Amino acid sequence: MEKFTKFRDPGTGIAPFLPIAPASRTPLIIPLELTLFLFRVPLLFLGLGLEFILVEAVGEVTLRKVLPPVVAWTRWLLLRTVLLLCGIWWIDEQLEGVTKSYVPWVWMETGD
Predict the structure, then answer these.
(1) Number of domains present in the structure of the chain
(2) Residue 29, CB-side half-sphere exposure with 13 Å CA sphere
(3) Measured CA distances, 67 to 34, 48, 62, 76 (Å)
(4) What is the pTM of this model?
(5) If both were cysteines, with which of 19, 23, 54, 83 could 88 make a disulfide (CB 3.0 to 4.6 Å apart)?
(6) Residue 37 falls within a domain, yes or no?
């Protein structure tokens, strides 16, 4: 494997052709993961079911025309709860690479 060291990234030292070593796991973590799985999966289905019933069925039929923010916030809360149960703690909600541009609408007269 030493013949691939010349392909390392000079800035980070990452070798793209070397295999990644698997992470070592202790046998004590398996019961914890199984317990979390048994609690998270029913809560996940409950959250998705509530989102479907409250937002997609009842909210779209009755509340969409009257109180659209209530439907939107209920959808946001339930889907964020589902993401939290999946292990996604934070989502960065910003736009990158978007700049404001100023276009002056000044009509210039030509002096003919």
Answers:
(1) 1
(2) 4
(3) 41, 21, 9, 15
(4) 0.57
(5) 83
(6) no
